[in-house]
Amino acid sequence: MTYATQAELVERFGETMLIDLTDRADPPAGAIDAGVVADALTDTDAMIDGYLLGRYLLPLAATPTLLKDLAKAIAIYKLHRDAVSDKIRSDYEDALKTLRLIASGDIRLNVAGVEPASSGANGVRTTDRPRDFTPDNLKGFI
């Protein structure tokens, strides 16, 4: 499942920007290189899945709008080979923070029934030993 598409990147960032970022031919072809965009989107999907894997069953049945937005911010950052504008870097860092919050459970995705069931155990295990002082052996002291 792809969280964002090339068409969505064009809609958000414009065709000119994507041509500038992806046209790596010599001489330049003046068109978006779909292979470069596909590689960036694949990397983006893998990154997002890495954050979601511990909390949600993948692949998701539907892509929440939040994940589409995060995927676009990450993909455009990954398409840059050189200097990145402050806005794009900020959006990328914000996307990573949001993914961490999703992974920790502080932000929940609006996807019904996909969180894995918990085991019911809280992870705490205690083993008690016989007590040295009991009411019987303390008679007469209290």
Structural class: mainly alpha
Counted by DSSP, the helix tally is: 5
The largest pleated sheet is described as:
none
SSE run: HHHHH
Distance between the termini: 71 Å
Q: Which shape, going by the Cα principal axes?
A: rod-shaped
Into which percentage range does the β-strand content fall? under 5%
Poorly predicted segments? none
Average pLDDT works out at 88
| Proportion of residues in helical segments | 40-55%
Question: How large, in whole angstroms, is the Cα Rg?
Answer: 25 Å
Textual characterization of the structure:
With 142 residues, this protein is an all-alpha fold. The chain has a domain at 6-104. 49% of the residues lie in helices and 0% in strands. Helix 1 packs across helix 2 and helix 4 packs across helix 5. The radius of gyration is 25 Å and the shape is rod-shaped. The N and C termini lie far apart (71 Å).
Question: Would you kindly provide a brief summary of this structure?
Answer:
49% of the residues lie in helices and 0% in strands. It has helices spanning 6-13, 15-22, 34-52, 65-79, 86-104.
Give descriptors for this structure:
142 residues, mainly alpha, 49% helix, rod-shaped
